[in-house]
Target: Starvation-inducible DNA-binding protein
Amino acid sequence: MTQETYIFASHLDLAQHIRKESAGLLQARLSDSLDLEAQLKQAHWNVKGRDFFQLHELFDKLHGEIEDLTDTLAERITTIGGIADGRVQTTSAKTTLYEYPLQAKGGAAHLKAVAAALAEFGKHLRADIDKAAAIGDADTADVFTEVSRAVDKQLWFVEAHLVEE
Ligand SMILES: [Fe+2]
Model:
């Protein structure tokens, strides 16, 4: 099932061992990101209650943004010579996000579930910024920075709904 990170030969001026390590970091977040896409659709489809329509729309907007960021992570892997593994089997085996609660019903339950997933994803991304920088791959660190900045903003949007007025 799991395979050694494969790296194609490239004229890119990053050593193969650096590209291999970066591809491993990126692949871990790619699995998370694909899981998060599915989680946001889960929220989009199943949320109920008085705020149904705006949350239904919000979760779909967040899904669209995460879809683009997933592409950014995957294409950084292929840019540095790796194989982006977007198979559902890999995503299921490797995601580090919490399993989405199937019974979530009202807006607050979905907002809390989505907030937990975004916070967990953001935490891992922030750690990866430093890891990529430490191995000498500033561009991959920049990708993680771009994704984590967007995810932090999403968390703000979601958490703002949970503040008592
Ligand atoms: Fe839809």
